[in-house]
């Protein structure tokens, strides 16, 4: 059931609230040093004007509540409970509670989502036309907060090409957006901007990072009054930093938020601890947190990802790759302690980061824009309480081209966080990813066309209607010469569907007026209906005294008109019955039983309702194992028969107890002999302590710290109140590893250039991550557990192996000496360096050795080879030293020797010019007929038909030869030609496949005619090329006898005869 308040109850509630405020004023002096602690916000998604509950500790009469950069209207306060109305200007951010009495602030574990109650889903028609407001040159980033406290969100823009920043003071009314603008000088260009209250006065400051390569952040201390925005600028230098993204969060839980600044020039993040003590915000010297394996940090998000109530830091390699870096927060109050960054790589080129809970598991997922992939990656949070930050496999969701900035907001009002993505691509679009998740995370992509490329975006209500609009930076397109530098706004024109609270059906008794409420929207009008007939009530609520079916119509200044679902209310007379009184049990100890009771009146039924879904029927009722999440308002619904007679409430507090943390355990593993000092935070002189190891008390361990020296699970119990049982911290598991024992095996002597193997025989503790560091004594090292074989030169060396545990100090070292003798250097000799066709070479060694192993597999001293290639031999001597050598032999074919002559037939006594090619040296025979038998082109004198031969070596040293016949004209051609008398042109072999005439090639003036037995001409060819294969006219001729005639130029038959063709 929901909250039902009658008039009497409202009056009692206000009196009780006034009494509590007076009590707060009386005891304020005892609480000034304590920062508020926010443990739960319920609900964490609500519409403007809705009352929500904030549970925590150390609230007082001065406590105010901010929804990001906007103040909420506090309805009531106790030390552990605040009820506050959601402002229309609530931004997607953590809810903060600030005690103005000491200027300290506490933050909610999760961001708050403004959700106005619209229909699920979005189209382009749900948004109005883009409106632009001028900034200065190089507009880059913006932040949105209510700086002057007038209930409307103002805007500050950073200008990267101008020494000013831009302020847009919001003067909008519902449905009409307007601003007044100023551009104060700041003395430098600026890049990114973030807003948040830094000095605890309830007014948000703005922090800008210096542009270009500057190392400053500019803090704009807020001096504004309603309708007048005013800042005092204070610059802070961060040495060695090129400042970029800025986050604001209280890392050490002291109630003062730190500045966390990314560095776009180096691999680190800088933290500026807040030292403000009222007035102007001040910060300690920046502390740099290095990022191992990083390049430059860009995007940054700071939130509690491992649900231990401490904000952690996540950053990314900016526009380099897909690496994400995580640092867990181990701080205690006032003590900054952040773990070393560790990383994962999700691929792509990352630009910026954001976080939101998409699957309602109360853990924040991580989002990253992937600049070159045109998408965002969403990683589900898999961390557990206090664990290392871990995320599941990323889901990619497409965007418009070149995504950059991103933000979260519920644009369609369905209580699901949507994603906005600014893009720098040529398509000029702004991507809305509408969350339609149901179980698994999923989105519907909507690209809104815009006028300019855009870089950064926010989802905030601008005109005060309680619906988040889209605010973004339209930036200069330097690549295409298109200036912009405008702060642009797209108004959310989606309609609000009214929701009646409480939902029906219900039955109430006469005299117990039931108040029905709906969303309160500025500028809207309301019409209530009963059974379809209008009622005179025009407020966002109605008090029901008559039975019927009720609806309400919400009209947004004529632009939207939506009707709620109907609820049924029955009003009936209960008879005359008394009113029970709820008994106050007082504050309840954590872990004990809450007893709820009221005076008993016969005939009544008692139904109880409370936080965390508590419900029970009866009187009395109990809630065992009471925890802080069970604090809050409990309702007693008193029924007479079936009708609700009245509802009473009581606020149940816990006996005040802080959140206790164990500090000092920055690493769960240590070395034996070391100690880890565990400390409890916070501490008090009134507390008593007992330390436990493995759930057993440690004798004498009763102080606020304990020095652990052995492995086990440690925790502490704290007696914080004499009337309550002790509370225990979360356990911390410590492991103390024994010192590693370094040992390895290896030879005491070896030969130069020979592989030497060292075998690791070290002993390390199970579960420890060991690191092995080898020093081979010759200037080379290795980090392998079992290094590859090592090769030494001649000499003496000391080999060292050091073994340690990664992240710990304990280590052990062992050494061994090795003497390296000179290695063997065999030399292979060959009878020739060149293998010509048909030749072989003998390979021999210049020295004798104990053993031989040739690459051919032979083990003799000499080998004979006849193939080209590289041949190697490994030899060893009597001491075991080895050596090897190789030789490469080349193989070449016989040279192609060609002889030509200017004439093949001459008269006796005439000369012929011969010429040979293909050789380097020449030797002709018969030499007596030549003018010079050692040249390539001798002149021959012919007396009779003579065959001239030439031989020699080519450039490779291989021998070649050839011959040519020069005919004397006293010889008949017919006597020189020698035709074959048969041939066999079978295709299965290549023997005698064509008809040959020896020496016919030397007589090109001669032709051949072939006929069959009937005189049919089968072939005529001049010159004849020795290529007849027994075919005519494309057909194979049968076996048989055929006839040839050879004629030369004078048409005389020089030779004729028969040919036998065999198949």
Topology (elements, then pairings):
Layout: H1 7-27, E1 37-42, E2 45-46, E3 51-57, E4 63-67, E5 70-71, E6 73-77, E7 81-85, E8 93-99, E9 104-114, E10 131-134, E11 139-145, E12 154-159, E13 165-170, E14 179-182, E15 190-196, E16 205-210, E17 216-222, E18 231-237, E19 243-249, E20 258-263, E21 268-272, E22 287-290, E23 297-303, E24 312-317, E25 323-327, E26 342-345, E27 350-356, E28 365-370, E29 375-379, E30 395-398, E31 403-409, E32 418-423, E33 429-435, E34 443-449, E35 454-460, E36 469-474, E37 486-490, E38 506-509, E39 514-517, E40 525-530, E41 533-534, E42 541-544, E43 548-556, E44 560-563, E45 567-572, E46 582-583, E47 594-598, E48 604-610, E49 614-617, E50 621-623, E51 632-640, E52 643-652, E53 661-663, E54 669-671, E55 676-681, E56 688-693, E57 696-697, E58 705-708, E59 712-719, E60 727-728, E61 732-737, E62 744-745, E63 749-751, E64 755-756, E65 759-760, E66 770-775, E67 781-782, E68 790-791, E69 795-805, E70 811-821, E71 828-830, E72 834-836, E73 841-845, E74 851-854, E75 863-865, E76 869-876, E77 882-892, E78 898-901, E79 905-906, ...
Parallel strand pairs: 2-9, 38-45, 54-61, 63-70, 72-77, 79-84, 86-93
Antiparallel strand pairs: 1-3, 3-7, 4-5, 4-8, 6-7, 8-9, 10-37, 11-12, 12-13, 13-14, 15-16, 16-17, 17-18, 19-20, 20-21, 21-22, 23-24, 24-25, 25-26, 27-28, 28-29, 29-30, 31-32, 32-33, 33-34, 35-36, 36-37, 39-42, 40-41, 40-43, 43-44, 43-45, 46-47, 47-50, 48-49, 48-51, 51-52, 53-55, 55-58, 56-57, ...
């Amino acid at each position: 059931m929901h909250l039902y308040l009658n008039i009497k109850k409202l009056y009692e509630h206000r009196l009780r609230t006034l009494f509590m405020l007076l009590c707060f004023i009386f005891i304020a002096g005892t609480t000034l040093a304590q920062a508020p602690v926010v443990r739960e916000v319920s609900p964490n998604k609500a519409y403007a004007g809705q009352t929500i509950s904030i549970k925590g500790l150390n609230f007082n009469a001065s406590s105010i509540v901010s929804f990001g950069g906007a103040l909420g209207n506090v309805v009531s306060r106790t030390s552990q409970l605040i009820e506050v109305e959601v402002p229309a200007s609530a931004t997607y951010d953590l809810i903060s509670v600030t005690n103005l009495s000491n200027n300290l602030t506490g933050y909610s574990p999760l961001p708050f989502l403004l959700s106005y109650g619209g229909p699920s889903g979005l189209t382009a028609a749900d948004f109005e036309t883009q409106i632009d407001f001028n900034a200065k040159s190089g507009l880059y980033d913006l932040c949105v907060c209510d700086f002057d406290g007038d209930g409307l969100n103002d805007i500050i823009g950073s200008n990267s090409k101008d020494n000013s920043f831009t302020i847009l003071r919001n003067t909008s009314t519902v449905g009409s957006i307007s601003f007044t603008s100023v551009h104060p000088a700041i003395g430098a260009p600026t890049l990114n901007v973030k807003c948040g209250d830094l000095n605890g006065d309830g007014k948000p400051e703005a922090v800008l990072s210096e542009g270009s390569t500057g190392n400053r952040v500019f803090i704009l201390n807020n001096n504004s009054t309603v309708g007048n925005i005013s800042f005092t600028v204070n610059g802070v230098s961060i040495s060695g930093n090129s400042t970029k993204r800025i986050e604001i969060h209280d890392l050490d839980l002291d109630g003062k938020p730190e500045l966390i600044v990314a560095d776009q020039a180096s691999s680190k993040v800088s933290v500026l601890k807040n030292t403000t003590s009222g007035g102007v915000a001040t910060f300690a010297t920046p502390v740099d947190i290095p990022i191992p394996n990083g390049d430059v940090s860009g995007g940054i998000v700071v939130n509690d990802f491992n649900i231990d109530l401490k904000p952690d830091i996540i950053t990314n390699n900016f526009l380099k790759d897909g690496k994400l870096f995580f640092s867990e927060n181990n701080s205690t109050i006032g003590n900054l302690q952040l773990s070393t960054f560790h990383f994962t790589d999700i691929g792509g080129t990352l630009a910026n980061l954001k976080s939101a809970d998409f699957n309602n598991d109360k853990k924040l997922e991580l989002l990253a824009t992937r600049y070159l992939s045109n998408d965002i990656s969403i990683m589900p949070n898999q961390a557990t309480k206090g664990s290392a930050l871990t995320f599941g496999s990323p889901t990619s969701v497409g965007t418009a081209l070149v995504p950059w900035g991103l933000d979260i907001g519920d644009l369609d009002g369905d209580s699901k966080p949507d994603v906005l993505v600014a893009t720098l691509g040529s398509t000029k679009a702004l991507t809305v990813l509408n969350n339609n998740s149901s179980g698994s995370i999923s989105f519907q992509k909507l690209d809104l066309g815009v006028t300019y490329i855009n870089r950064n975006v926010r989802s905030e209500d601008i005109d005060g209607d309680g619906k988040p609009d889209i605010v973004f930076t339209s930036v200069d397109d330097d690549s295409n010469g298109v200036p912009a530098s405008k702060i642009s706004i797209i108004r959310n024109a989606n309609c609000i569907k009214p929701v009646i609270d409480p939902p029906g059906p219900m039955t109430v008794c006469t005299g117990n007026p039931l108040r029905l409420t709906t969303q309160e929207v500025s500028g809207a009008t309301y019409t209530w209906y009963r059974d379809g007939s209008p009622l005179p009530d025009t407020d966002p609520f109605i008090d029901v005294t008559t039975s019927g079916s009720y609806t309400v119509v919400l009209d947004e200044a004529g632009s939207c008109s939506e009707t709620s679902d109907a609820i049924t209310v029955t009003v009936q007379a209960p008879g005359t019955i008394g009113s029970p009184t709820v008994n106050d049990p007082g504050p309840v100890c954590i872990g004990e039983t809450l007893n709820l009771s009221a005076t008993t009146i016969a005939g009544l039924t008692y139904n109880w309702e409370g936080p965390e879904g508590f419900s029970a029927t009866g009187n009395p009722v109990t809630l065992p194992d009471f925890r802080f999440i069970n604090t809050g308002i409990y309702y007693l619904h008193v029924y007479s028969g079936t009708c609700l007679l009245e509802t009473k409430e009581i606020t149940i507090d816990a006996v005040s107890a802080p959140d206790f943390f164990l500090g000092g355990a920055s690493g769960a593993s240590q070395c034996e002999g070391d100690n880890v000092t565990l400390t409890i935070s916070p501490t008090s002189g009134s507390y008593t302590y007992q330390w436990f190891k493995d759930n057993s008390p440690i004798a004498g361990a009763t102080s606020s710290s304990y020095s652990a020296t052995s492995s086990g699970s440690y925790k502490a119990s704290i007696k914080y109140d004499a009337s309550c049982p002790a509370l225990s911290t979360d356990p911390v598991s410590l492991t103390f590893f024994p010192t590693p024992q370094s040992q390895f095996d290896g030879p005491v002597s070896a030969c130069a250039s020979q592989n030497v193997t060292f075998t690791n025989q070290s002993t390390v503790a199970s579960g420890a991550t060991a690191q092995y560091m080898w020093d081979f004594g010759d200037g080379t090292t290795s980090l392998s557990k079992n290094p590859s074989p090592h090769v030494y030169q001649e000499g003496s060396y000391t080999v060292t192996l050091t073994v340690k545990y990664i992240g710990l100090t304990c280590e052990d070292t062992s050494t061994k000496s090795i003497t390296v003798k000179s290695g063997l250097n065999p030399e292979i000799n060959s009878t020739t360096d060149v293998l010509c066709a048909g030749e072989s070479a003998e390979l021999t060694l210049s020295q004798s050795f104990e053993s031989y192993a040739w690459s051919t597999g032979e083990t003799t001293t000499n080998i004979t080879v006849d193939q080209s290639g590289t041949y190697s031999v490994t030899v060893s001597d009597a001491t075991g030293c080895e050596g090897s050598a190789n030789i490469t032999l080349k193989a070449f074919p016989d040279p192609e020797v060609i002889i030509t002559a200017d004439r093949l037939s001459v008269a006796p006594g005439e000369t012929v010019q011969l010429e040979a090619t293909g050789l380097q040296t020449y030797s002709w025979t018969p030499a007596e007929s030549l003018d010079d038998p050692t040249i390539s082109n001798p002149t021959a004198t012919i007396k009779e038909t003579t065959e001239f031969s030439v031989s020699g070596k080519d450039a490779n040293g291989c021998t070649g030869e050839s011959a040519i016949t020069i005919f004397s004209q006293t010889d008949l051609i017919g006597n020189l030609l020698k035709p074959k008398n048969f041939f066999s042109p079978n295709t299965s072999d290549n023997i005698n496949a064509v008809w040959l005439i020896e020496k016919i090639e030397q007589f090109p003036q001669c032709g051949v005619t072939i006929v069959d037995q009937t005189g049919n001409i089968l072939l005529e060819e001049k010159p004849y090329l020795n290529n007849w294969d027994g075919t005519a006219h494309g057909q194979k001729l049968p076996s048989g006898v055929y006839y040839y005639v050879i004629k030369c130029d004078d048409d005389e038959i020089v030779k004729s005869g028969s040919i036998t063709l065999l198949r």
